[in-house]
Design a protein that fits this description.
4% strand; two-stranded antiparallel sheet; 447 residues; globular; mainly alpha
Length: 447
């Protein structure tokens, strides 16, 4: 149902119109001036399509849920419903409620179907860490409500905070920044993500990397980029940009030093999200376009990589790189898909990641040329740990103590990954298919 709705909205979206479309007010509580109103723009539509598609992938992966299938399908249905509310609701308070509500199905998914004995610890770690960060967002939104008397995103003064005193605007800006930085996550607020990825089942990792991390970047773009005090704290924007650049390099080094395949991909996800944030705050239209494209590209590539690692774990019950070698001999289809997705992860020309990272690099070169060296270092490290992972698990001599039988991909797994790979490559050669939806947003952000 949600997929059919997304296809219909994509078809009738007016690409020449700036701002939100299909605005509909379901109800309004007049005495507190809060309304349940929904609407879409280009980035909302793209993230809705991404979240719906990845939830469908998780539902098709239902065989990873060895028991309690009813609870599993209910968690997936609630997740896609909440994702739609996060990306479409146009009221600050209701956005906060939806933003927090997604933690409940993720907590259940991680705590019930987690792969190892530390799954309960990881579930509480995920829940408490992100809820603590969201308290800052609640403080900021209530401050905006008390100061302006409204919480509608459609009212420009509520979002931009032009009537804020400079000092007060900076405090609200910092609160929102902390809340969304934890969800992205930016370094040093990234500690919860590798633990959650390692303990999560494959569908949980797909949703974490593909959608949950996008909530933070979406909120950062929607409420911080044009948020209260945005004109005042130019130095804070510079610090944020620098922290994202250092986080990109640091997480690339950390990924190189891991032995668990999921931890490698977890740190890789953090590094790519930090690079996307650099594009958002590069103060250049090319960087903004790269931010949107890389955010969507990371959702497809990272989710597909976690899906591949989950296949190996389900067959051989280990994710340590040291236990694998020569998988190209016993799992040739899996190895070829891994090679294609590794090319996507390193932003090889012809993949959608290349388009996003190229635009971000251009934007950074124009605005923050002195930090371009950090980008080059991070890209080289990404190339090293990505091909290190591929070479270690696909080539060498078969390690018989662990790999005792032949078990390549099933038809369902092949069809799902084939769709993901087609999207990644086709969007790499025809990036305008994404950019024509994003340009609605860029026009409104750069007025």
């Amino acid at each position: 149902m949600f997929l059919a709705l997304n296809i219909f909205l994509f078809g009738i979206l007016d690409l020449a119109r700036i701002g939100f479309q299909f605005i509909y007010e379901l109800c309004r509580v007049s005495y507190i001036n809060i309304s349940y109103i929904t609407g879409f723009d280009g980035i909302s539509m793209c993230l809705l399509a991404l979240s719906t598609f990845l939830v469908i992938v998780c539902i098709v992966c239902y065989w990873y849920a060895k028991y309690q299938l009813t609870v599993y399908f209910l968690s997936m249905s609630v997740s896609v419903w909440i994702f739609h509310h996060v990306f479409t609701v146009l009221d600050l308070i209701l956005f906060y409620i939806a933003f927090e509500a997604i933690l409940t199905p993720m907590f259940i998914l991680l705590g019930v179907w987690g792969s190892r004995e530390r799954k309960i610890y990881a579930a509480y770690h995920l829940f408490l860490y992100t809820v603590l960060g969201s308290f800052f967002m609640m403080i900021a939104f209530f401050d905006i409500y008390m100061h302006t008397g409204d919480t509608s995103i459609l009212i420009q003064d509520v979002i931009s905070g032009d009537n804020y005193h400079a000092d007060r605007g900076i405090y609200v800006y910092i609160c929102l920044l902390l809340a969304f930085a934890i969800k992205i996550p930016l370094v040093p607020f990234h500690i919860w993500l590798p633990e959650a990825h390692v303990e999560a089942p494959t569908p949980g990792s797909i949703l974490l990397a593909g959608v949950l991390l996008k909530l933070g970047s979406y909120g950062l773009m929607r409420f911080v980029y044009n948020g209260p005090g945005m004109a005042a704290p130019a130095s804070l924007t510079l610090y944020l940009f620098t922290i994202a650049a250092l986080g990109f390099v640091y997480c690339s080094f950390a990924a190189w030093n891991q032995q668990d395949m999921k931890k490698i991909l977890a740190y890789s996800s953090i590094a790519h999200m930090n690079m996307a944030i650099m594009g958002l705050f590069s103060q250049d239209i090319a960087g903004l376009q790269g931010f949107g494209i890389l955010m969507l590209a990371h959702g497809f590539v990272a989710s597909a990589l976690f899906y591949l690692v989950g296949m190996v774990y389900e067959r051989y019950k280990s994710r340590l790189v040291m236990y694998y070698s020569a998988l190209i001999l016993i799992m040739p289809r899996w190895s070829w898909f891994l090679f294609i997705l590794v090319l996507g992860n390193i932003a090889f020309p012809g993949t959608v990641n290349f388009v996003g990272e190229l635009l971000i690099t251009l934007g950074i070169a124009r605005g923050f040329g002195y930090l371009i060296f950090a980008i080059y270092v991070g890209m080289v490290l990404t190339l090293i740990y990505s091909f290190f992972l591929f070479a270690r698990v696909c080539f060498g001599i078969i390690k018989e103590p662990l790999i005792r039988y032949y078990s390549d991909m099933t038809r369902v797994e092949i069809y799902l990954l084939r769709v993901l790979v087609i999207i990644i490559i086709y969007s790499g050669f025809v990036p305008e298919i994404i950019n024509k939806f994003l340009k609605i947003l860029w026009s409104s952000l750069t007025l």
